[in-house]
Amino acid sequence: MKVLLLHAYSAQNSGDGLLVELAKNLLLEARPGTTVTTVAIDATSFPDDSVVQWGTSNPSPSATKTKLNMIRTPLTSDKKVDELAEEAELIVGVGGGYMRGGTVTEAAKHMAAHFGQLRIASRHGHKAILLPQSIGPFLEPYGRVVRGHLSAINTVYVRDDISRDYLAALPNVSRLPDLAVLEMAEQVSVTPLPATGRPVIVARDLANRPGQYYSLMDALAETGRFDWAVQSKGRGNNDVPLTRKLAGYEAPDLATVLDKSEKSVVISTRLHGSMAALMAGVPTIHLSYERKGWGAFSDLGLDKYVLNARSTSPQQVLRLYEQLIDNQATYWASYLQAQSSIRETKQLLVRRLRESGVVHA
Question: Is the pLDDT of residue 361 over 80?
Fold first, then answer.
């Protein structure tokens, strides 16, 4: 079976790279032998030659020219991707937190990076499925255009209740956990090791309405009780400068930290940093800055271990960390208890993918 996988971003961001791999794994579980061609914003970051570029690849010397090229693609078309969509027997959107446009800046970013791909999916809606993501809100009238394209797609999955409510008028929308949450249900047989190392913080820039976040990070850094790690280095999502400032040194990648024999609690501002920690058998606290974080931790049975990144105090973080350290068995029991229904949900999704697409006689 030929599948076209849309909306990939950059393998430099380990969270987005993970989503691509999880989507491919789902497709192969549903249809062994499936051939997947991926469309990405930064195709050169992927080692796989089956990844094709959407729009402009690397930034040109002229930032203005790069932005114009990104905008022109959704307004016109991408001939290569159009041809791949025609040939594909199934079109799948990889999911992620990109379907939003509540401000002019967000709407412009969505249009440049994702609207053209959404339009292609809707044009072939009978054979298209969007995997779980957060969607909306959008400024009007752009929102009506986006919802119109979404309504033409066979099935649209969202990963939080706010997205589901925003699209309540569309009968093709269903609520499912994040792909990483679905994957975790397959790893419950792994017994997590006790976290005894120094806790590790994963920071990120919150340029939009940061609230007290930067004061929180500075205060936690000043305690000297934490190590630091970098989860994302992707274009437009580079955590290195902020982490260097807070840590005072070049922090390792989160993947390197998770590979260590001595496990440490991970306090991550990036949701997929927390997801990666849990998948490695490492307990985590999520400092959430948008609704997908609360949705994911609720699905995981860990809603007690998510804090608001914009308003949480250092004392709250330290108190919750100490509670986790003292109650690791309870933490993992809550996590494991949620896995049975998640496994059932994943199998329903696999069956849906198996039964979808163009059927040849």
Answer: no
Residue 205 sits in the same domain as residue 145: no
Record the tokens describing residue 13, joined without a space: 């961001």
Beta-carbon contacts of 273 under 8 Å, excluding residues fewer than 6 positions away, are 15, 202, 229, 231, 254, 266, 284
- Same domain assignment for residues 85 and 197: no
Cα separations (Å) of 145 from 6, 94, 114, 152, 167?
19, 21, 13, 11, 13
CB 342 within 8 A of CB 299: yes
pLDDT in tens, 215-258: 999 999 999 999 999 998 876 689 999 999 999 999 999 999 99
- Tell me, yes or no, whether 156 and 28 share the same domain: yes
Query: What DSSP character marks residue 252?
Result: P
Residue 21 pLDDT exceeds 50: yes
Give the domain extent around 163. 2-176
* pLDDT higher than 80, residue 76: no
DSSP secondary structure string for all residues of 143-198: HHHHHHHHHTSSEEEESSHHHHHHTTT-TTEEE---HHHHHHGGGTTS-PPPB-S-
Same domain, 66 and 20: yes
User: What sign for the dihedral angle of Cα 180, 182, 187, 192?
Assistant: positive
Neighbours of 143 (CB within 10 A): 16
Q: Which two tokens stand for residue 172?
A: 């093709």
22-71 confidence digits (pLDDT tens)? 999 999 999 999 999 999 999 999 988 899 999 866 544 444 444 555 55
